[in-house]
Every structure is written in C-alpha cells, then in structure tokens.
Amino acid sequence: MIYELRIYRFHQGRKNVFLKTFKIARTFMKKYGVTFVAGWESLDRADEFVWIRKFPSSKHRQKAIDAYYGSPEWNKIVGSIRPTIKRREVRLMKVLPGSKLKK
Q1: Model-level pTM?
Q2: What residue segments make up the domains of the chain, in order of their start?
Q3: Disulfide-capable partner of 33 in 57, 64, 69, 74 (CB 3.0 to 4.6 Å)?
Q4: Which residue, among 3, 5, 8, has the nearest Cα to 60 in the 3D structure?
Q5: Which CATH architecture fits 2-92?
Q6: Which of 15, 23, 71, 94 is nearest to 48 (CA)?
Q7: Can you tell me the distance from the alpha carbon of 103 to that of 92, in angstroms, rounded to the nearest whole number?
C-alpha cells in the first residue's frame, strides 16, 4: 500500500473556498481509484490543510492519478481549487511494521 501525505497552505482568505470545492472533489475520487483516508485542519496554522490518500501500488497510483486529473469532473472544478493553494507538499510513504494501517 502506498500512502500519500499532502500538506496545503492557502492564499489568505481562500481556505474556505478550497474546502468547499474539495468536498466536491472527494465525491469522485474513488471512481478513479483514489482512496481518501483522512483530512485535518491544522490547529497551529489557520492557512493549512493536511490530508492522506492511498493506493494499492505505485503502478496503480499513477494510473489512478492520470484518470482522476484527466476526468471531466476534475476539469469542472480545477479552475476553482488550484488558485486557492499557495504551497503544496506531497510525500509518498509506506507503513512501518506494527502500524495499525494496512501495509
């Protein structure tokens, strides 16, 4: 299992626009092979949102990302969601032995 940690920082006053649009984006993730695991709003930074998505393998991840970002649903919202993000960090992770998450 491949986990992807995503940390977003927003342009001032744009976080709520992102969250509203992200709620729409989540409705079609699974359709294209992207599994939403969890999301968090930072207690330390008002302009930050952190979330995790997962994929069965690296090969599946690339196929799912291509399908998701090439979808008609994504193309309808990309113009609203991307301009809200000031900075994005993405980290690929694997589960350590003993973790309660699936490997």
Answers
A1: 0.90
A2: 2-92
A3: 64
A4: 3
A5: 2-Layer Sandwich (3.30)
A6: 15
A7: 13
